[in-house]
Amino acid sequence: MVGSQHIIFCKKSGCPVVAREEIFQTISTCHTNVGHSGRDQTWAEVKNNYAGIKWDVIDIFLKTCTSCCQRQAVKSLPSGKAMINLSFLIRVQIDLIDFRSRPDNEYKWILHARDCFSKYSWAYALKSKRAAEVASHVFDQFCSFGPPRIFQSDNGREFTAGVIQEVCNMWPGTVMIHGRPRHPQTPVAI
């Protein structure tokens, strides 16, 4: 008994056992004593001086330590090449959106086209994703707004089919490229 407190010591280590209510403060003190050095140093300090604190509690505490959270380096993403578009309809990206889980009667797909310069979008409801149906809407869009210089799509069968290629061949200035839509590192064709 120390003062008015009863302290229990561990037989194995000879260190005082920490009460549940005091675990947070004890870990905080040990973590500060080692200069916010991290999990392993904090665990060594706790293990050498106290008993009854589990290793995984140290991890939980470190996630709440404001000093350590502010010090962590922010991971930077690798910078890719920016897509430079100088005017409307230089590059149009096109993709299909699957709505089979929430169909609107017989319409289960949406054909989405987007101009990279103005961010203007077109959307067409589709009953299926057959190449002929996709080509019909692409043809209508080209007739209404004019063909883009670069027509970019993913590698889906509906876009790599000969029907789409024929639509693009009708406008000799249009180049069809396949890759991931809305991704700046896809090959640039000018």
From TrEMBL:
Gene3D superfamilies: Ribonuclease H-like superfamily/Ribonuclease H (3.30.420.10). InterPro entries: Integrase_cat-core, Retrovirus_Pol_polyprotein, RNaseH-like_sf, RNaseH_sf. GO terms for molecular function: nucleic acid binding. It comes from the Eukaryota. It holds the Pfam family rve. GO terms for biological process: DNA integration. Residues 74-190 form the Integrase catalytic domain. This is Integrase catalytic domain-containing protein. It comes from Littorina saxatilis. The lineage of its organism: Eukaryota, Metazoa, Spiralia, Lophotrochozoa, Mollusca.
